[in-house]
Predict the 3D structure of the following.
Amino acid sequence: MNLTLKIWRQDNPETKGKMVVYPMSNVEGDMSFLEMLDVLNEDLINKGEEPVAFDHDCREGICGTCSLMINGEPHGPDRLITTCQLHMRKFNDGDTIVIEPFRATAFPIIKDLVVDRTAFERIQQAGGYISVNTSGNTVDANAIPIEKEKADEAMDAATCIGCGACVAACKNASAMLFTSAKVSQFALLPQGRVEATDRVLNMVRQMDLEGFGNCTNTGACEVECPKGISLENIARMNREYMSAIVKG
Ligand code: SF4
Ligand code: FES
């Protein structure tokens, strides 16, 4: 395939960025999207030009770092996959592909397609954990019976990889889907109930402090989420939050 790439280039957070056009030839359908960018970068390096900076690590849909806006969609045109799992066979010969970073005030651009998503880390640090005694007398997790349905729902919430596609997809740059998944994975389990009140209050407070917008129920986050995290989690987080407020 011959393609035209339009890629956002920006030297650093202070400089102005711009779209730069790169023609690509001999792109194979079996290449992953990131392999296609690797080929472009090898070419740029051979020509003495600066390669395009983009985030990646596991390249198998686990780490959540490969955050790219592809033709206006986070992680591209396919559903329930990350950018690293997207294959070039999804595109056609002659296509123009627009590649941008995830855009949100709370995700400032570092360089080219790389954004700073440490806001998510700070939300996690505000309450995305449980406190357990690890001094030699840890209770066996299986000693506490948990209904299968609850365990499955908690596991589904726990599959959130913190990629930020939900924020990028949302017109308000809301982080409610991410935060609610991190609240839900504990709220559904007895081990998570002990700190549930403080957790939801602290995580929501941090989410607001980071500058993410509010949820207006458009559902774009759920559609673009590579892990199929459900809007049910946002409803659960709202219930948890109201109950925490009432408890004072
Ligand atoms: S909820 Fe989905 S889109 Fe949002 S960070 Fe988690 S995995 Fe990514
Ligand atoms: S590189 Fe890890 S999820 Fe894509």
